[in-house]
Design goal:
Chain lengths: 646, 323
């Protein structure tokens, strides 16, 4: 695969500042006008276990990670030993020479197959079973080594600062690694300073220390490694963009979409979204909204559990609020009953479901798309819902806003499916365009004429939508109940009433299916006469689009049907696209090809090849490139399991 | 125009068993609402699942007959979203102290201004009489195959431990006392809990109406029954923690309430056990962070302007994220 992007990886024990290093690096590149895609991998642990961050940089738009590493930045042994083999010939490793003697066996935080493989490899090559052995192995493959004596450097620097700053200076090794990396690819200084100042904006003193350190590191690296890595990253002009994580994208969409109460119980990888919302609980409003002091607000409530999260959000919705909750699999499990209550009472409530690797606790910080079927069928009995799956950060923004809108327009629960891959990735997104968001309050009744016949919350109507009053409207008394009910909301088990109520509720999704435009349901990419058609949903979109582009350069023409609205299922469009396909390939981050199953249920069309991955690591550009190339050719296997990633 | 009792009645058939204490609770709730004279539409009423849960359908105000154990978080959600509504919530003892007990504890921590009444009948009525969390150890009510093997939870003590700022008990068949207690609870600025002793003639054949009124223990001279239930008010009991009291004085009030909560059997106190006027309400706490919370609440603030454009203008948030 031809790939001109630059892949930088930094790693270290959790809690040591890997994230902030990566953040500085990625923002520096973005400030320099480049495209970046950042992927975070970490353990369910606060301090000590290995985590790493990949930042992929290019002049062209990027949407996914790669397996290859061009420059590996390390401070300690474990990152070096784990990732050295990923560094390509011609790439480089930054490391602390003081750590080279460490025997691999003594890395206590690392166990498992990957460690055994490294030891076997070194033994096979007759190399020392130490960090130095790994470095030697890399060097033999043509990897350049860049020893950086972090301690010496930092000690020299601390001489420039009064005593009290010393403790703070231990963290500056992070900036040393970032600055050294950027110096090795001859990147301009200015964007790095911009990034440092933006990130430490609240602590200008710390920002200036870091700028100083960056300066000295650049000097050091230029002096000691004048040739650099042999690759360069060049700044360029670009429009202003947002550097976002998926969590933040969803939060922005909710604010724009009118969400004014969010409940949550802490869970990875969902809670960052709620915390972001809480940090921005008071925000500016456009003057025409005539809000006090020109401010809007969102109330964020940390509840005692996810049952309270969904029921509290539903209570807020009954009062007329656009309300939502965010969770991942374990929490969503607790929400089943509450979701059904919102279903039978036609209450607009939104659940953002961040999928992570299950079942049970599974791999809580790892990626998977294993909850599709779960989200389609959560709850006992049958009730209508809308289920939307976003494919990238920009879709997260607009879909989150749309979910708020659909919920109210069709008076039902809406589930927004995202995943860990999106939640913890960084990418660049155009500044949101508010004119792309429409808020329709779906027949919300704000007042009733006094002469009206008694208000019926669940009145039978042509299209199934009844006038919905929030609590507090004079004359609009109503009862909600989890029991089957009559038009007023009182318990009623009459068989005729039951049939009418079921038809009414389910009729609303037929209406939604009819009214919601095609472009909100699916995306179709690529030429219509492609050799094969890919079908997928959710965050695999990025790797698929990147792979399609690189395959096109090799003359392999594919097209791609991205299903965004899972319920109501867009039968017609899907059948239309798939029936014209020469070959059909599904791509999903789960074991059982859940969407392929749904597709065959809905369209009676099956896949020629099902590509799956379930090792907890997002699909990479290169592995999907290779897999799709194979799958697009005649005679491809029926099932392909991808396993890349560390 | 003042509210009439008839305004608060619905036409829905009341399907409780004859003699059920829930009738007394219904009547008292309607009396309290009438006497408080809050406009009907400003009230939101919630109930859980169990016999008690039907109460909502018999009262002519908006609300929700919710899920088993979850009435409280639904009610809290409504109150938080629109703090101008008067929120009342009715729960069962199984509902609120069994499956939903977690919500009870956390509602105490928050001190949201609403009323929570628990129908304490010692049994799971609607599932045919299993032991509820308030039934005493070794008691064997009618449908239990064996005597109760669990000890009971003391709701007054649990409420105290959870930080509830208004804790009262009343009796379903003393409708005047119960209506007055509910009124005090509604007027209290904070989370108010009212435990209602509720005879269930169908399944609880131990704590019956006759037992509460002492039919089995008559005064040897007058031959009159000696009621087991007595009123704290009549003893000069003072439950109030006033603003400005020291922590020590507050602890003394808590100890007094805890001690009273232990009385059971031949002497069962009803009335207000504890009322703390010194603890901030949740709305006060929110106001420190969101100054417009009461005037532009989550439920009432404009979210869109002309033609459905978002009311939120996030330009300043973008500044922090832009490159
Ligand atoms: C999640 C769930 N589990 C079990 C039930 C079955 N259920 C219905 S009512 C009830 C007990 C009601 O007891 P209580 O709350 O004391 O109310 P009462 O009937 O005594 O008024 C139970 C367990 C249910 N509805 N939902
Ligand atoms: S079972 Fe008990 S609580 Fe339920 S209605 Fe009958 S008497 Fe009342
Ligand atoms: Mg009960």
């Amino acid at each position: 695969m031809k790939d001109e992007s630059f892949s930088w990886v930094i790693g270290g024990p959790q809690g040591s500042g890997v994230d902030s290093s990566a953040n500085i690096f990625a923002r520096a590149c973005a400030h320099g006008g480049l495209w970046v895609f950042g992927k975070r991998e970490y353990h369910s642990n606060i301090m000590g276990l290995h985590s790493y961050f990949q930042v992929r940089v290019s002049e062209k738009e990027l949407r996914s990670p790669v397996d290859r590493v061009d420059l590996l930045a390390t401070f300690e042994e474990e990152t070096l030993v784990r990732h050295a083999a990923e560094v390509v010939a011609g790439g480089g490793i930054l490391y602390d020479p003081a750590k080279a003697a460490k025997p691999i066996e003594e890395i206590e935080t690392w166990h498992g197959f990957a460690k055994e493989h490294v030891l076997e490899r070194l033994k096979g090559e007759g190399l020392e079973l130490t960090v130095a052995g790994v470095l030697k192995e890399a060097e033999k493959r043509g990897v350049k080594l860049f020893p950086v004596p972090y301690t010496d450097l930092v000690n020299q620097l601390s001489a420039h600062y009064p005593e009290k700053q010393l403790s703070k200076l231990t963290r500056v090794v992070n900036v040393v690694a970032v600055a050294a990396s950027l110096a090795l690819v001859k990147f301009d200084r200015a964007p790095l300073d911009d990034a440092v100042r933006a990130i430490f904006g609240r602590k200008p003193e710390i920002a200036e220390i870091n700028v100083f350190v960056a300066d000295r590191t650049y000097e050091y690296a230029t002096q000691h490694y004048p040739g650099g890595l042999g690759r360069t990253l060049t700044t360029r002009a670009s429009p202003r963009r947002l550097f976002l994580m998926g969590n933040q994208a969803v939060a922005l969409g909710k604010l724009l979409g009118g969400c004014r109460m969010q409940t949550y119980y802490p869970i990875t990888p969902a809670s960052d979204e709620s915390e972001f919302l809480e940090a921005h609980e008071v925000f500016d409003a456009v003057p025409a909204a005539k809000l006090p002091d020109g401010k809007g607000s969102i109330l964020v409530v940390q509840t005692e559990d996810e049952i309270a999260a969904i029921t509290m959000a539903t209570g807020a919705a009954l009062a007329g609020t656009r309300a939502a909750t965010s969770t991942s699999g374990p929490g969503f499990s607790l929400m089943c009953e509450g979701l059904g209550y919102a279903g039978i009472n036609e209450i607009p409530v939104v659940v953002t479901l961040y999928q992570r690797a299950g079942p049970s606790t599974g791999m809580p910080t790892r990626h998977e798309q294993g909850d599709l079927r779960f989200a389609m069928h959560t709850g006992q009995g049958e009730f209508p819902r809308i289920l939307l799956a976003s494919g990238d950060m920009e879709e997260c923004i607009y879909d989150a806003a749309r979910c708020m809108d659909y919920a109210e327009r069709y008076q039902l629960p809406v589930i927004h499916l995202v995943d860990k891959g999106l939640a913890n990735s960084n990418s660049l997104v155009p500044i949101p365009d508010p004119s792309r968001i429409r808020i329709e309050r779906g027949g919300l009744v704000q007042s009733l004429p006094a002469t009206d016949p008694p208000y019926k919350r669940f009145a039978f109507t042509e299209d199934g939508l009844s006038p919905r009053a929030p609590f507090g409207v004079k004359g609009a008394l109503m009862w909600n109940t989890g029991d089957e009910h009559n038009e007023f909301g009182h318990i009623d088990e009459d068989p005729e009433n039951r049939v009418k109520m079921m038809e009414k509720r389910h009729g609303k999704v037929l209406l939604a299916a009819k009214q919601i435009p095609r472009e909100e349901k699916v995306n179709v990419f690529g030429p219509p006469d492609a050799a094969a058609t890919i079908v997928s949903w959710g965050s695999t979109k990025g790797a698929i689009l990147d792979a399609m582009a690189s395959l096109a350069e090799e003359g392999v023409r594919l097209n791609f049907l991205q299903i965004r609205m899972v319920l109501p299922f867009p039968d017609d469009v899907v059948r239309d696209v798939l029936s014209k396909a020469k070959r059909r390939i599904s791509v999903e981050m789960n074991y059982s090809s859940q969407m392929a199953g749904v597709l065959s249920e809905r369209t009676h069309l099956s896949m020629d090849t099902e590509i799956v991955k379930f090792n907890g690591r997002p699909m990479t550009h290169n592995e999907l490139h290779d897999a799709l190339k194979r799958a697009a050719a005649p005679g491809a296997p029926q099932r392909m399991v991808l396993t890349n990633g560390s | 125009m003042a509210l009439k009792l008839s305004d608060l009645r619905t036409e829905v058939h009341q399907d409780w068993c004859p003699g059920c204490g829930d009738f007394g609770i219904l009547a008292s709730a309607q009396m309290a609402l009438k006497e408080l004279d809050i406009p009907q539409e400003r009230v939101a009423l919630f109930s859980g699942i169990g016999c008690h849960g039907k109460i909502h359908h018999f009262i002519n105000v908006s609300g929700a007959h919710t899920l088993h154990g979850r009435a409280l978080p639904y009610a809290l959600g409504t109150k938080l979203a629109n703090p101008n509504l008067e929120v009342l919530c009715f729960g069962g003892d199984g509902d609120g102290l069994g499956i939903g007990v977690g919500h009870f504890v956390h509602a105490g921590r928050r001190n949201i201004d609403m009323t929570y009444a628990i129908h304490d009948n010692g049994v799971y009525g609607l599932t045919k009489g299993q032991a509820s969390p308030t039934l005493g150890l070794d008691l064997q009510t009618k449908s239990l195959p064996e005597p109760n093997i669990n000890n009971n939870v003391n709701p007054v003590a649990l409420a105290l431990a959870s930080g509830v700022t208004f804790i009262a008990r009343s009796y379903a068949f003393d409708t005047r006392h119960l209506a007055d207690t509910l009124k005090k609870a509604v007027l209290h600025k904070g989370f108010a809990v009212v435990i209602i002793l509720q005879p269930c003639p169908t399944y609880n054949d131990i704590e019956t109406r006759a037992w509460y009124s002492g039919e089995d223990r008559r005064n040897p001279e007058t031959k009159r029954p000696m009621p087991r239930v007595y009123k704290l008010e009549s003893e000069g009991y003072d439950p109030l923690v006033k603003d400005g009291m020291t922590e020590k004085e507050r602890f003394a009030k808590m100890s007094q309430a805890l001690e009273k909560a232990q009385e059971w059997g031949d002497e069962i106190p009803i009335g207000v056990f504890y009322q703390d006027l010194s603890t901030s309400s949740y709305a006060d706490r929110i106001l420190h962070r969101i100054p417009s919370y009461l005037t532009a609440s989550p439920a009432t603030q404009a979210i869109a302007v002309d033609g459905g454009r978002p009311a939120a203008d996030l330009a300043r948030i973008y500044d922090g994220l832009a490159v």
